Amino acid sequence: MASHIVGYPRMGPKRELKFALESFWDGKSSAEDLEKVATDLRASIWKQMADAGIKYIPSNTFSYYDQVLDTTAMLGAVPDRYSWTGGEINLSTYFSMARGNATVPAMEMTKWFDTNYHFIVPELAPSTKFSYSSHKAINEYKEAKALGVDTVPVLVGPVSYLLLSKAAKGVEKSFSPLSLLSSILPVYKEVIAELKAAGASWIQFDEPTLVKDLESHHLSAFSAAYSELESALSGLNVLVETYFADVPADSYKTLTSLSSVTAYGFDLERGTKTLELVKSGFPAGKYLFAGVVDGRNIWADDLAASLATLQSLEAVVGKDKLVISTSCSLMHTAVDLVNETKLDDEIKSWLAFAAQKVVEAYFSANAAALASRRSSPRVTNEEVQKAATALKGSDHRRATTVSARLDAQQKKLNLPILPTTTIGSFPQTVELRRVRREYKAKKISEEEYTNAIKEEISKVVKIQEELDIDVLVHGEPERNDMVEYFGEQLSGFTFTANGWVQSYGSRCVKPPIIYGDVSRPNPMTVFWSKMAQSMTARPMKGMLTGPVTILNWSFVRNDQPRFETCYQIALAIKKEVEDLEAGGIQVIQIDEAALREGLPLRKSEHAFYLDWAVHSFRITNCGVQDTTQIHTHMCYSNFNDIIQSIINMDADVITIENSRSDEKLLSVFREGVVYGAGIGPGVYDIHSPRIPSKEEIADRVNKMLAVLDTNILWVNPDCGLKTRKYAEVKPALTNMVEAAKQIRAELAKAQ
Description:
Elements (H helix, E strand, L loop, with lengths): L2 E2 L11 H10 L5 H21 L5 E3 L7 H9 L15 H9 L9 E3 L6 E3 L2 E2 L11 H11 L4 E6 L1 H6 L2 E2 L13 H17 L4 E5 L9 H13 L1 H4 L3 E5 L7 H7 L7 E5 L4 H9 L6 E7 L9 H15 L4 E5 L18 H4 L5 H7 L6 H9 L6 H8 L12 H12 L16 H11 L5 H22 L16 H4 L3 E4 L6 E4 L2 E3 L3 E7 L6 H8 L7 E5 L1 H6 L2 E2 L5 H21 L4 E5 L14 H16 L7 E6 L8 H6 L4 E4 L9 H5 L7 E4 L12 H12 L20 H25 L1
Parallel strand pairs: 1-12, 2-6, 5-7, 6-8, 8-9, 9-10, 10-11, 11-12, 16-18, 17-19, 19-20, 20-21, 21-22
Antiparallel strand pairs: 3-4, 13-16, 14-15
Helix pairs in contact: 1-2, 8-10, 16-23, 18-19, 23-24, 27-28
């Protein structure tokens, strides 16, 4: 049976691309140096797949930032503010769109469906002109061909590209990016023509929006697009790939009716209902790329289950038309298990990273390892399961209303109006990373490590006091990652040495692996938080990661429902919250950066997820006193459709991304949503090196005050500062504090 890989990790087994990108951005290496690293990585990936016997090997899935931005470059859809004058888009323009530059901000960044990967959102207008401006797809196809590998070039499909776009600032609200379909198809035709001329026999269009709830005019756009492309596609085999969820029946009908399409790719791991649609009717003579190898998790494939699924499909599709595939791109999993030399042998035998999943396409799963996992005593903790079961029957709300709690907290904290704070982390310097690395390698003693971290905390506290920030953070110098740090101290978790996964650009995360029941053996943050609070008279936030975010940013066990694991994590965090309060910490932030990310792609599944996710958050802090202020933080995503659930979390203060999305969040409040808790919509984008002026920040705050009460508004960046340099952070925070003080003075004068 032939096999197919939807896409593959880009960073390299040891994050080679990450370091090459950062060296280029810092001016330490040239574009040629960067391209050399990229070329070597691509060659290695193609060779690995060819050696494994994969028939349908993808190209053009490699990217310096993300595949949607690559498509924006291909189409020449560069916003005017980047002063692009045409021609082939260079790296300067490309990275300015992604990261901003000294004079203009970056484009909006948001989550890629329900993953922790991000993409740069295209900004389109009726006046947008499209032209073929990046030849990356054809160049990579030819590059692979020169190495003797015939690949399947992959493009983001035209309809999904437009459905993932947004209207540019200042455009009429009635404008829909989908209205530009006829304008972008000529560029797609040019790309297709070049690929055909170069000898491509297959082409893959990724159309993941087909798994969402689409309206009839959206489906009509798919029919129109692929009908218009039909003559250009003549002579090519065309695969339309979907992933991450079931394809709804109407979308399935539309997709399988496209006469220009040769093959259909479906995620049969997360899209089990699609399996029934295929069995009930599949077009004769077409190929089915069956996504039975999980591209989003690290557990070894269940050989028997996959074989049974494929055998049932053979009878429908025909053996010669059935292709075994990954459920989605393997970029969402770690690269290669071979690099994990220190991982527990038993747990390691249960796993498969991207390199192993390439081989899993030929069914080399280890049945003995699967049996070992099912029977291992280390997976189950009866006490934990009993405690989680006992949660049923209560909604775990705090006893008093948020307004009453805010009054009690203000009497104790005595904060000014528009209080300033940051989200948690401060820059992670080379020296700080060296200290953590040497401590982990046992090259320095615990005392030396503690003194070094104490010195860093003291520095961060002093900086914040000098800046006159109102509620401080300790900067998280002891943490490499906000999830990894907690997972290392919770039972039921294990960690890899090189299990990195791309989040955006050069940013990589190393998700923990949750293999068993979760509990907290010992306090995790209390020591550092108490130390930090002892250094200042100002309130010091205790910093925790919430249960839903720990869950969504981990590789989660697949032998029990996700909500059961989440409740176990919530109970562990609850103990930590109560220990922080007992230790004198008056403000505790429980980050739920990934709560929106986990929202199912289908609306019919939203209510169930939001119910247990919000409940999990409330469990963590239901036992604290009214005077203890509970904060939460949420990252880049679209929150407008879940604002009632955010209110239902019952946090005292929420800080939330706002600056990079053109203050989209504020539209909720303009439309009449009443929010009574404290709220800090981010006033500047920390994912860009650009330093915002005091005037720019003040303007943002004034826009917020137009829709939010003065007594609930906080002033803060929109995320943690760990990826930035102090040379960027200090002036940006200076301007933020000065803007807050200026507006306080203006408000006092107006009274």
